[in-house]
Amino acid sequence: MLNSYPKLRLMLVKSTIFHQVARLTGFVSIITIAAQIMNKMKLLLTILLMFGTAQLLAGNHESIEISDVVMPKVPSVSPTAAIYLTITNTGKSKVALLDASTNVAHHTMIHQSKVENGVAKMKHVDKLEIESGKSLKFVPGGYHIMLMGIDKGLITKPFEVHLTFEQDIKESFTVTP
Ligand SMILES: [Cu+2]
Prior knowledge:
LpqE-like; Lxx211020-like; Copper chaperone PCu(A)C; PCuAC_sf; binds copper (II) ion; alpha+beta; elongated
C-alpha cells in the first residue's frame, strides 16, 4: 500500500504531461490548419485578383461597340454577301480596323464601294481608323464586310464575324440571316 502511492503520483504526472502535450499539439494543429486555410484563402484571393485584372484588361478592349448588324438577303446561289454594321469607339484612343474573318466564307474582306466614272467598283480596305467617341457606319454604297466563296447552306444559320483591330484588339459579333 505504501508503494502504490508514488506509483499513482507518477501516473498522475504522466497523465498531466500527456494532456499538456495533447493540448499543446492540438493547439499546434489548430494553428497549422488555420495557416493552411489562410494560405488557401491567399491563393484564392490571388486567383480572384488575377482574374479580376484579366477581366479589367479585357474590359479595356471592349471600348468597341458593334450595332445595326444587317446582312441583306441574297439568292441562295450567290457566292457573295455583304454585311453592314456600325462600329463605335467608346474608348479614349483611336482604333484601327484591319481585318474581318468568318468560317462561312472562303474569304472575308473589308470593302469600300465607289462609283468611278459612272461604274460601281469595290476596293479592299487595309485599315479603317475610328477616332475616340466616333462611329463608323458601314452602309450600302460605302463600307461593307464582303463574304466571298460562301459555302452553300451555311449562311442560313447565325454565324460569328471576328474583327481584328490594331494592337491585336479583337471584337466579335453575330450575324443572323
Ligand atoms: Cu465588296
